[in-house]
Design goal:
The protein is an all-alpha fold. Helix content is 38%, strand content 0%. It is built from four helices and no strands.
């Protein structure tokens, strides 16, 4: 992220938001995010155990893709503040 000092041991919501915004602001034609990255921008929507959200473990050939969103779509639609912030980020990047 081109910041001085050591990297943080935990990825804060601010860090996730910065990374997501940098990707949105890129010149790439497409920007595709796993839903857990988007939810990671909000303290009450993110999952505390990031390791449990790992979709795939490449070193284990018997591991399977098993991610399940920990909140319902209905609950996510009720999170008006989160949706508003996400909308602003997309609009700022001129991707809307």
């Amino acid at each position: 992220m081109n910041k001085p000092g050591k990297a943080a041991t935990k990825c804060s919501t601010t860090t996730v938001e910065t990374i997501v915004q940098e990707h949105l602001d890129s010149t790439s034609m497409l920007t595709i995010f796993p839903i857990q990255d988007i939810l990671g921008m909000d303290e009450k929507l993110r999952k505390d155990d990031a390791k449990s959200e790992q979709i795939n473990e490449p070193s284990n050939s018997h591991h399977y893709w098993r991610y399940r969103m920990h909140i319902s779509s209905e609950r996510l639609l009720k999170e008006r503040g989160f949706i508003s912030e996400w909308t602003k980020m997309v609009q700022k990047s001129k991707r809307s």
